[in-house]
Task: structure prediction
Amino acid sequence: MEREFMEFDVVIVGAGPSGLAAACRIKQQAAEAGQEVSVCVVEKGSEVGAHILSGAVFEPRALNELFPDWKELGAPLNVPVTRDDIYMLTGEDKSVKLPGMLVPKTMHNEGNYIISLGNLCRWMAEQAENLGVEVYPGFAAQEALIDENGVVRGILTGDLGVDREGNPKEGFYTPGMELRAKYTLFAEGCRGHIGKQLIKRYDLNSEADAQHYGIGIKEIWDIDPVKHEEGLVVHTAGWPLEVTGNENTGGSFLYHTENNQVLVGLIVDLSYANPHLSPFDEFQRLKHHPVVKQYLEGGKRVSYGARAICKGGLNSLPKMVFPGGALIGCDLGTLNFAKIKGNHTAMKSGMLAADAIVEALKAGGEGGDELTAYPEKFKSSWLYEELFGSRNFGPAIHKFGALMGGAFNFVDQNIFGGKIPMTLRDKTPDYACMKKASEAPKINYPKPDGVLSFDKLSSVFISNTNHEEDQPVHLTLKDPSIPIGTNLPLYDEPAQRYCPAGVYEVVTQDDGEKRFQINAQNCVHCKTCDIKDPSQNINWVAPEGTGGPNYPNM
Result:
């Protein structure tokens, strides 16, 4: 069908830290060179920041480069880190506090800030618009525009007003628009659905290790001012994950931000083996541990959300470029897991791609080529140096566990500065790590008390998640028979548990038959299902624009 189109020099998919940093950098560099470069950013959330979720302790290194005067411009970095407390939780009521001298250097946060990444992205979007960038929230990029020569020429936004069967709804239907570009940057975040397609089409990961992921679940609490210590950063490892028959790891965070609030969450490595494990329920019981409970008791939970994170690091980076475009940020996988930080690295990757684009346009380029200057700039940047220095962190934890892996990382980071003369590899995809249900111990999670711990549906409610119900289901099954025919008998259908929003259910019908039910309305866009399904049968695609969570300050 004929569609309306708009043309730009650069189209960026995703208004997160990498996409917005790229947009700002392009306009800054173009202005310095006296160039006119048109830039458009599309964002599937109802507003910039609506789908942004991060811890977040923020390292301002990339922001210092992008906006040296960010303080004068009012960037929302208001809470400098004052202290790091790190605990090994050895049981449900036991812990050991680690002395600073035994903590890897990467886990120290002097000079960093506790922030809301959503609010930082809102501020960055304002700076981008001030520079002349066109920012369009509420428009989901549905697919890449690829010409007959295999060149990416922009993106197609999703149709609006389509019913569940894919038919236009009378009076509501608006066809998607082509946004054409000389260069297109994909900044969709972790496991971007177009990025995944591009990696496969152009075989971008042929020389990379398997990408690895975690799921991060986060809440914001208002707490008793007497218990609040603005700037305090608390991290934990160990319990509850290590005592559930799970052969992998994770860790929690609790950050004291402004206004007597704390940001509390749990990251669970998605390489876990036990199909009975529920990351959501592990997080709920974590909050009853005395190290965490001491701050939350008497407080009130005010927000909830979840998202997957890319944590494979340097070893898992795919090729960055393809004809007409590039991957940046978490679509590429630039998070530094040794620091548990990916926002400054995402920003830097976007800035490096931006520099390559401006150079290509300045040289008279018409687009469609591979931005070879981008990976070259990456190789000579502090971003590469940082990711190289942390390349062993995740594989060490996966191979040796939290204790011995932590000891290896202490030696690597504190003694060798990340340059130990060996590189550990972790080539098994996360979904392939799952044991059969019959081989793994069942886990009996305590019922939530409604005070510190809660159920999934009440949690989704405070994420402000909403989707137009009469639209095509955005969680598609490659083979509808697999959940009941394969995953249920082999793995007790783990989608019931790894989803932190109650999207997937196995329902027993009146005739006793089992049915797999998808409650797509609940989806918080974490994409864990797309990653962890042991049969790789679930495909997450973007729903209508504005659908999903509406996080105020996550």
